[in-house]
Design a protein that fits this description.
This protein is α/β, with parallel strands linked by helices. The strands form two sheets. A four-stranded mixed β-sheet has the order 1-6-7-5. Strands 2-4-3 form a three-stranded mixed β-sheet. Helices cover about 45% and strands about 20% of the residues. It has two domains: about 120 residues, Metalloproteases ("zincins"), catalytic domain (Zincin-like); about 70 residues, no CATH class. Helix 3 packs across helix 4. The protein is elongated. It is built from six helices and seven strands; from the N terminus they run βαβββααβββααα.
Length: about 200
């Protein structure tokens, strides 16, 4: 079985409490419309951010931002989070995205020509890696903790695991294929920074 584990830039350490909060929001029908909390910060000048915490969507904006600007910003950022949640709870979307990545960056349909049917799903039991692949069964598993991250990061991990359907190890052939994803270095940097921040705060 191949996996993104402790030897990769895709490593991460995050508390089980944070993971469970995200899993609850992403999978529980009772929380499909989480509460939105707006926090005005005097430290922020221009940037805004939104994230899931304790079953709520927290939106942080500059203290001096006008109410109209806040409304527009909140609508945009909350919309992004909800779209990510939709992808997270719909396994068919994962498979369609995988097909798009293969068609765009590879020379062969490694999903359609695989010896056994390929399955891709989110899992909640991967606490030390972002993804894993078992070529013999065609099973690809992605950590649910990716669900709150940008699309290009999710795609990078998914593409990484798709390559393992045809290349088991992290050899020259593997990197030649995985580096076809144009944002692979950007995704590596994002996950490395994420892991560093988590390790520092724990």
């Amino acid at each position: 079985m191949s996996e993104l584990s402790e030897t990769s830039l895709f490593d991460f350490l995050e508390s089980d409490k944070c993971a469970q909060e995200l899993d609850d929001v992403a999978t529980s029908p009772e929380k499909s419309e989480p509460e939105i909390e707006i926090q005005r910060s005097k430290k922020r000048r221009k940037t805004c951010t939104a994230f899931l915490q304790g079953g709520k969507i927290i939106v942080q904006v500059p203290a001096r931002m006008s109410q109209r600007e806040v409304e527009i910003t909140v609508a945009e950022l909350v919309g992004r989070i909800k779209r990510r949640e939709q992808v997270a709870v719909d396994p068919d979307l994962l498979m369609r995205r995988a097909g798009e990545l293969v068609a765009k960056y590879l020379d062969q349909d490694i999903i359609g020509t695989h010896l056994v049917p390929v399955t891709i799903r989110w899992v909640t039991n991967q606490n030390s890696r972002w993804g894993s692949c078992t070529p013999g069964t065609g099973a690809i598993r992605l950590s649910h903790r990716l669900q709150s991250m940008p699309q290009y990061v999710q795609d990078a991990v998914l593409f990484h695991e798709l390559i393992h359907l045809v290349v088991l190890g992290h050899n020259a052939q593997f990197y030649k294929l995985v580096n076809r994803f144009p944002e692979i270095e950007r995704a590596n940097a994002y996950l490395a920074g994420y892991a560093h921040a988590r390790n520092r705060n724990n």
